[in-house]
## 1
Amino acid sequence: MTTTSAPTRAHAAVPASAGISAVLLSVLGLLSAIAPFATDLYLPAFPRMAQDFGTGATAVQLTLTAFLVGVTVGQLVFGPISDRFGRRPPLIAGSVLMVVAGVATVVAPSAGVLIAARLAQGLGGAAGMVIGRAVISDLATGRAAARAFSLMMIVGGVAPVVAPVAGGLLVDPIGWRGILAVVLALSVVMLIAVLVVVRETYPAERRLVHRAERAATGSPLRALRSRAFIGYTVTFTFAFGAMMAYISASPFVYQDMMGLGATGYGLAFGVNALGLVVVSGASARLAATRDVRGPLTVGIATLLASTLVLAALVGSGVGAGWLAIPLFVAVSSLGLVLGNATALALGAVPAAAGAASAVLGAAQFGLAALVSPLVSIGGGATAAPLALVMVACAVVAAATLAFTARRTR
């Protein structure tokens, strides 16, 4: 009884005029896309960076690792802070930090300075990601929230495709410092957009109500023990893990095994991303008229079936080209999963949306960091590790969703 009444009281405090405008959703989409751009845009410049710094590939790779560590830790920091002080102040602080760190990356005199600057840049960028989700949770629940998260997934699906291609085109004319200057420019745009568009969605009066509710439970994080929150978070995390396994292994599968060149690989990767974008758009439309649990269930079932087909094809030894079909279906199916699972997870704990968003994001990137190395165990000779990892992630996601649906019905 307490679990179902808390969300009602919480959202009753939201002004009747509250909503998510197209402009606000675009800004939140930019906040969610800044990390993919900041990670993928400069990847083609790695060899030149190592040459300029007179160092090995490991030191340059650490600039990426540092950024991802910053993103993970930053979400755990900024999420709870936004529950205590509101969304806008820490969002502005994180945006400013990303701009300052961006300046340091452009003028970094050594690989060590660049690594430190990228760590700070990741910390700042995390604020936009974690608080952006919390802002949606403040303004919408249920179908409206699922629609907003699905639309944000469209931006998230385009960014990883556009960034490496753009980086490859820019590395020769402007160099790696120029590419990092582009990331800096995007950070400045992000800061301006936050200052102009994003208003406080978690005012003091709502924070006081939620603080009293959390105090009554005896622990400020007790809300995160919700079965629904844990279940949908695990479903989201392992579904995203399947996508990260695909992204990490895709160069080996499409280029080494299928024999595609760089252009062919980019086209294949783009087709799969387009499938994700199209299905995410369809999911947003479905959210206007249907219970989001239905599309989520269909998405998870499709993900499981396509990964099992992928494993069967790998085991049968058929030509590598056939693997493109289940991979396309698996990636596309995530358009029904990621936005809806996020909406259900955060909607289960409105009194701690910031902390919940932080846990969701940290789990997402934490599992991604674990599965990415596993798929390359076999090198470019076999897709078996990819198939096994994707099946394992899909099985965990499906089992967790089934258990959560049964226990929270």
## 2
Amino acid sequence: MTDRERFLRLMNYESVDQHPIGLAGPWPDTVARWRKEGLPAEVTDVHAYLGIPHLRVVNIVGVFPYFPKFERRILENNETFEVSIDGDGRTVRNFKDHTSMPEWIDFPVKDGEDLRRVMDEHMDVGDMDARFGEEFEKSVRQKTVDHPDALVMSNGGGYYWVLRSLAGVEVASYLLHDEPALVDELFERIFTLVMEGLRRVTARVQVDVIGYGEDIAGKNGPLMAPAMIKKLILPRYRAALDLAHAKGIDLTWYDSDGDLRLLLPDYMSVGINGVSPCEVAAGMDPVALRKAFGRNLRLIGGFDKRIVAKGKSAIDAEFERLRPVIQEGGFMPTIDHSVSSDISWDNYRHFLDAIRKYSGH
């Protein structure tokens, strides 16, 4: 049985010989700490070094969402930080002495006029053959040639993600209020790309999961008003999932940090049935989620990174608390984001030993 087959059976509450393992990546700061605590300097892939099998996912998508892409370039580089233009056209500062989110200095969209310009310059949806060219073919080859047993994901949309990436949370909020027709046009262009992508991908390979990158919530709940989500995004989610269901694709992998609980009933009503990374600090506890939403909601993540930092006893106790949901199925536990630098090498190895044990390895 391959990990792809295990994942599909697990998420459909069917028996498996062992659970697939999903793994989060460590920060560069974390790896630097681990090297001081025993990780050999020549090791570049920690999980391969430790012999931990992990679920491989191939995301098959064309050039999304910008075409032509924003030009990435370095504006300033010194011993302390680097300032650059990133792939979303933002000016960002990344510090070199520690790992963190970038400092966003400037965004390409500050008002409706900017959004119109960016759509005209970078959101063309007329030449689909160009969008689904070399990069698309490369990702198809990853599945068909390089990793035939990989789980295949196709894009279900990243509507708020694109708006927020272009404008930042504050300006995005103003645009939703002041320029709803313009935002709706942006979302329609994204929707056009999603639907064309689904048609093209499913014509080439068997798709297993519809994936979403939204980051639409924070610790205190949604960053976009639920009423606006219901009006501007949910109908597009529904249409894409109707097409997916017609192609025999029933599972979703909806990625967002923060607390999604207020949105989940509406999401589930249109067919979204799997969420990640289930950030426990924001209230997305797998035990409580299973009790509140039942087996129709599949869960990926949900192991509190703060507990891994506390040590072996805390890790073991948390796995015991999660055991009923793990055994029931529809849940692939892993650290609920990236592996932070407060996690020691010893504690992380114990976490990996435990996840193998509770996954039946």
## 3
Amino acid sequence: MVRQGLPLIAAVFALFATGAVPVVIDPGMGRKAFLQCVERSRPRALLGIPLAQILSRFFRRAFQSVQVRVSASGRTTARCARPQGCPTQLAVTASAPDELAAILFTSGSTGAPKGVHYEHGMFDSQVELIRRTFDIQPGEIDLPMLPIFALFNPALGMTTVVPEIDPSKPAQVDPAKIVQAIQQEGITNSFGSPTLWLKIARHCAGAGITLDSMRRVLSAGAPVPPALWELMQTVLPNGTLHSPYGATEVLPVSSIDATTVIGETAAHTLDGKGTCVGKIIDGNEVKIIALSDDPIANLSDVIELPPGEIGEIIVRGPTVTKSYDALPDATARAKIADSPDPCNSILDTSGAAAAAPVWHRMGDCGYLDDQHRLWFCGRAAERVRTQRGLIFTEQVEPLFNSHPGVRRSALIGMGPPQSQRPAIVIEPLDATVLKTSAKGRRLGRQLRELARHHAQASRISLFYFHPGFPVDVRHNAKIHRLTLTAWAETEGVGMEIDPKK
């Protein structure tokens, strides 16, 4: 419970050195969810700023396991002066590749946040996959707009420049300050959500600014919108926008760049084919299996689907985590054993973790094309089950998002689980659409006409308009569609657009 930047980096690596296991919980997930995460993790020690120390005394139940308390500075900056008599090198406790290294919490975008067990070998493999996939060189300078990504930089040989951003309110970032940091410090690399980079790219385009020092931008957490791919081609004259695909439980799985999207896959996305997330990264193996909401014990129990057929994405590889913290039922639902004993680590000849004998169920739907590229179609929990078949979010939302009056859209299902009616919720750019029924109906008719000849979107004639979508705090990009469904069922006023009028 320390501030982002130097205090976070120093604290985590000091804990690694002593052999302790850091528990990293996302700021801003909400007090109730945060306290539940702390209580379930049962930490023995609390390393925190003064406010955290006070809160831990007030919420005694959540922190009842804490026996050791260490105070940390509340400052976001600090001087790195070596105390007199301090050794030149930090003694590091030996660790095995299969030893627990950290517990990292998911964002909880489609459910309660879960603590993910990371082993040291998984971190080693993750660093190497990222280095190799994006050709990151020692001496580069990184501006991480998700604090936890700063932790990779010492291992990758990159300098970290801490951005002026509140990790609990990332959407409120001032793009001018980010641009100033990039230009002033010669930033070569940055990770940030599509929402953040779209804001920065629009600022650059409006001011005629190019980010000449940057070699790459990595954007993930949600599908990258077409406008961002196009804008970044101008903003990054010497670099490229990449979108890695993965999850807290396994990252990275695949990756795609702007050239491939603009030149090959973007048109197919608008046609309802989903969003291409690129080639599978060497070392990973991906299968598409028949959709099921039940736990799957062993790989022999799955039905593997052929290329082009949509199912659930499962992954095996060196960064695939094996379990959640204190959540055996969630682990059973998310993991598939590849052998009778999935808990044994497999090591390659160098001692690093090789492909784990366990498959992770991404909870995402998609398919593999004939070039063995992976396409994302949406979260399994957010698929709409109609009497005429399934509709997935990424089949229809990109089309509606292409309308100039739409900020973003969300597919939802109304009614009984197995016979839902598809509807679309629109967050309009013009707020007066929400107040004037004539404007709302006009926009609805335009969207209905846009979807008239689209295979999946043409089935939607029920529209809702919402002032501001609920999104995750971590990336400010993942839409809480299940929350929007509950809103539409209780508060929303739907607008029926007759396709014949």
## 4
Amino acid sequence: MLMRWDVLLALLVGSVGGVVIGAIPGVGPAVAIAILLPATFSLQPIVGLTMLLGIYGSSMYGGALPAVLINTPGTAVNALTTYDGYPMTRRGEARRAVSLAYAASFWGGMFGILCLIFLSPVLAIVAPMFGSREIFLAALLGIILVILAHRGQVMAAGMLAMFGIFLQTVGLDPVTYTQRYTFGATWLSSGINLIVVVLGLFALSQAFLLLVDKDDSPHPQSLDGDLTMGFKELFRHKRVATVSSGFGVLMGMIPGVGEFTAQFLSYTYAQKTSKNPELFGKGSPEGLIASEASNNAVPAAAMIPLLALGIPGEALTAMMLSVFYVHNVIPGPQLFQQHLDFIYALYLSLILLNLIVIVFLMVATKPLTYIIRVPTRFLGMIVLVLSFVGVYSLRNSITDCMVAAAFGVLGLVLKRLNLPIVPIILGMVLGGIMEVKLRSAMARVKTPLDMIDRPIAFLIFLSILFVIGLHVRTLVREHRARLPELDHDMHDTQQR
């Protein structure tokens, strides 16, 4: 399946394109995947998915370059790389920092893929045990985790996830085929297209942001010399690299958690176990390794809930799910039984992707530093044009362009208010799964307890209660910690 010219070309384009996209601050993989999605619908599933996986898996490699050189992460998940990467650059160790970031990324990426390959036989056994009830509860757990992952913004994330679920209900009812929330508008009868919303919220909103912000053209220092030195240094810190990659795999498998939590845990672990914890945030190689190894282990692990249960863990895997559906390849329990060759082709493509990326970076890092200098408004204009071309190519519809523009403005407002966009997309995707599976399960459910009368359903239900209980406990602790401050402020006010 992989040894075809079109598949290998897609993998090459995705891998190299992802590195380039990641190296340009302000764009990121979500924008690139959103723009490319309409084009992948006309390709065979293995071709389209290898291209998208290439962008998803390689963008973090490229994102480390501006994070280290100009203190600006190329992708959001490279933010922690700036903590130790940029101080190393200011000390005159830019080449060492970039080389170490590449080596840690490669280690994390390969570790994640190997874990995924060895876990796949387990998935093949467990996946058939998931019926409608289990998948409904797993999707519900996914939405709850996505909401609770936004610490300090739980209420806003919850409302945005509910908004996403509502958007999914517009159009024809999937069971009775009656109109819902269309208000007589014919253009709403087919529903609100997920890809139109994705392009609006991610690509167009980013284009608007780049256009309205001040024009900027960074000038990173040039990199010369051998970049393989990082691999030698990495082996001196292989414990940190391995544990950080392990955190990335664990967090990637849990829907709604992802790279940020993995980075935080691995960075904290590296600092607590380091012989030089005072160097963290001032140019510690261990901090840089922890950040890059953990975030690059996530993409392979994030494919586990997507492939085994058909449940995406975050926005990028939600976009990939639409490619599966378009080609009638439905992720879930049946996929491992009927299309195991397809699954292994995806695993091998992930391995090839990491090898292609690391070879490309060894020879093309210097030219990539010039790409970082692209003026932001020029970049915004390119993203804007490509986004509208992508939206229009879906159904040759001006209405879709108008809907995407409206969601682009909404995305811009949310970004300005520092509110999350991902819950809307996951609400649309998981909401659709939940509705179909709940209706299918209700035929065999007579009492509420029947929903959890099977072992896996009961375990998922307990997980939901545990996650909510843990969050409530955290809120209570935080409230108690603030009480002395509130009492002190009240006492000061009374004295005045």
